[in-house]
Amino acid sequence: MTPIPVSQQKMDALRERMETAITRVGRLVRIMEVCGTHTVAASRSGLRSLLPKQVKLISGPGCPVCVTSQAYIDAVVDLARGGKVTIATYGDMIRVPGKRGSLEQARAMGASVRVMTSAMDALKLARAEPHTQVVFAAVGFETTTPPTADVLIRAERDGVANLFVMTAHKLVVPAMLALLASGEVQLDGFLCPGHVSVIIGANAYRPVVEQYRKPCVVAGFEAAQMLAGLTEIVEQTADGRAELGNVYGAAVRGEGNAAAQRLFDEVFEVGDADWRSIGVIPGSGLVLNAKYRKFDAAERFGVQFGPDNATPGCKCGEVIRGLQDPYDCPLFGKACTPQRPIGPCMVSSEGSCQAYYKYHRFRPDPK
Questions:
Q1: Which residues on adjacent β-strands are paired with residue 285?
Q2: Angle CA(335)–CA(308)–CA(74) in degrees, nearest 5?
């Protein structure tokens, strides 16, 4: 007889534990996977189909492109169309539609827009073309913030005067707290993001546990890791406990990455941030401090931010806030597809709508 692989044995054991725990709970358990990478991994691996019907995974505001406000998108597109700068951006950002089109459409009409794989590429471009005003669209959570900080430290040290950033870096934990404070969505716990937690540390989620008594468990992105994290949350719910857990101890420490945090502190300070559909969350963003404010593209080029108006019919805002599934949007898979995206959740490779379209398009969520 062929032996059962260890990984399968582990998965089977975790499923048995979860089944036992959910029987003790006796109701639907709603768990938010905050991270967009978790959303994609759960869909791609088929993890959702392994969960009991009484366990529902809910996508949260963990896709950095998706939560970037419409006002920011419109401002960057307008800046590109102005013809005075070159916009350097990550690939997912280029196709997000704004009121006056996307960066991709602006480029087709003659704007200078370059796709970068890292913040360092923007610095290299500024050095290679000293007469070009390079504006880096600095979007992302704590994972992508240290590279932006490192680039600005290098630019300051080397006297690079033609590099600027439009910063839209955001912090994960304040958004989790804001969702709970709103009372809009009922949650039993959070599956916390692996790569963000490498930077900020597992202890960063203690306010969620202590203020709202919601279990928070950090997990990596393999199906077995995610299932282990989800099982721990269901077991805590069954026991009436709310604790901080970490099943990704190989990469995530309690205190996080001190070197990356020093980069934060050197360049940024905490400020308010505007989130798509959610609005301004106090203390949820990172803005350039006084020493590095000269690199602020908004100040340098007099950028004006308009209202954060959603596209009519698009339910990305509701999906981001965990209020609806992608299937609930009347545009999903019809007017809005990865080939012709209307909202950012369908544009981004970490967006819930794109994940559901790729892996669940023809079958409704069994939960």
A1: 170, 271
A2: 75
Specify whether the CB–CB gap between 63 and 33 falls below 8 A: no
Tens of pLDDT, residue by residue over 24-67, are: 999 999 999 999 999 999 999 999 989 999 999 999 998 999 99
In this structure, are strands 134-140 and 86-89 parallel, antiparallel, or unpaired?
Answer: parallel
Per-residue confidence (pLDDT) for residue 364, from 0 to 100? 55
Q: Which segments in the chain show pLDDT lower than 50?
A: 1-4, 6, 366-367
Question: Domains of the chain, with CATH numbers?
Answer: 27-303+310-357 (3.40.50.11740)
Tokens of 13: 């054991």
Give φ, ψ of 108 to 5 degrees: -60, -25
Q: DSSP code of 295?
A: G
How many C-beta atoms lie closer than 10 Å to residue 110's C-beta? 10
Instruction: Give the H/E segment covering residue 246.
Output: strand 244-246
How far is residue 174's CA from residue 190's CA, in Å, rounded to a whole number? Answer: 14
Pairing between β-strand 134-140 and β-strand 29-33 as defined by DSSP bridges: unpaired
Place of tokens 């079958």: 363
Q: Dihedral (C-alpha) 165, 166, 172, 173: value to the nearest 10 degrees?
A: 90
What is the Cα–Cα distance from 318 to 321, expressed in whole angstroms?
5
Whole-angstrom distance, CA of residue 166 vs CA of residue 83: 16
Angle of the 223-239 helix axis to the 36-45 helix axis, nearest 10: 110
CA torsion angle 211 215 219 225 (round to 10): 180
